[in-house]
């Protein structure tokens, strides 16, 4: 694991174990009174980020080497600070789902950072961190490497509502957490893409940082034009170094100061009430009498409902006008179909005996006109026109043997097919 950037104010590239134990939790918890931290959280632009500042710093300053006793001490301090963080959120009325979400992500990131070190992998000089990790203690969960990214995807559907939490997760990703992408092919590219998307959403909501650091850096007094060559090289190098160091410090401070807003939604996600299932058709129950008499047949499953009319019961031989006796039945079916969403297709079929009629040039033309007539009756009974379609199939897809009169009668039919929406 590559070392994450150091926290704001740290003057060490690789802090000693003792300093990390003091600075990662103890100094911020014991050195700063709880009341002062509470006031800082209440006054912060992002209270969640301010409340998690100490934990983010601990993530940034995770040491490479620790003695066994220091390992246990650091583990206890992080658990204590996690409880202080929760208390700060509760007393400042931060949304509970944001608090839980941020706590879950922080626990997962701290566990990952620890397990990337020699002392966090167990052995004679430490503890096997994963068996007693923070995520296990607070959430009884070891799948954070996957779930953090699932949480990000869910939060990005409503970025304005969850902006504080997204900022905290962005800082966690920026401080070295990679989760499942740490060992995945092209994982770093995927991780960077998610982190960049978070940054873009945050900037879209917060507004971009000003591009000009000092708009009035030049004096309004005009004097002798100074050449670049008038300055000694060492002054130029020194000034440039100071500017770069200042820019680094400023950007580092801005990054760390935005790290306190993402912890409330993980526990509530599993308890969310799923949306109600779309209403389904129950045509078999509705048409049980007609099914019993053989007027129609119904085929229903989770994906579609199909009502099949015998053509001889619905039309005169060779004709396309629906018999008046079928009107009430079609209206009853239309009333039920209009209550549910989904595409409605009316399919007309004939037998294979060629039609000899001036009105219809082929069996396909006859079947299409019959389907159109039924479709128009469905529309008149309340089914929206934009859901309806009529298709003439002619003598294709027979269900009976066209060599027998009974089989040809079965093939002369009209089907109303309703596709259910998921």
From TrEMBL:
Compositional bias of type Polar residues: which residue ranges?
A: 1-17
Show the stretches that span the lipid bilayer: 231-251
Q: Which domain of life is it from?
A: Bacteria
Query: What SUPFAM superfamilies does this protein map onto?
Result: OmpA-like
Q: Positions of the region Disordered?
A: 1-24
Q: Output a single Gene Ontology CC term carried by this record.
A: membrane
Where the record annotates domain OmpA-like, the positions are 302-422
Which Pfam families would you find in this protein's record? DotU (PF09850), OmpA (PF00691)
Q: Which UniProt keywords apply?
A: Membrane, Transmembrane, Transmembrane helix
Q: Which InterPro entries match?
A: OmpA-like, OmpA-like_dom_proteobacteria, OmpA-like_sf, T4/T6SS_DotU, T4/T6SS_DotU_sf
Name of the protein in question: Type VI secretion system protein TssL
Q: Which organism is it from?
A: Burkholderia reimsis
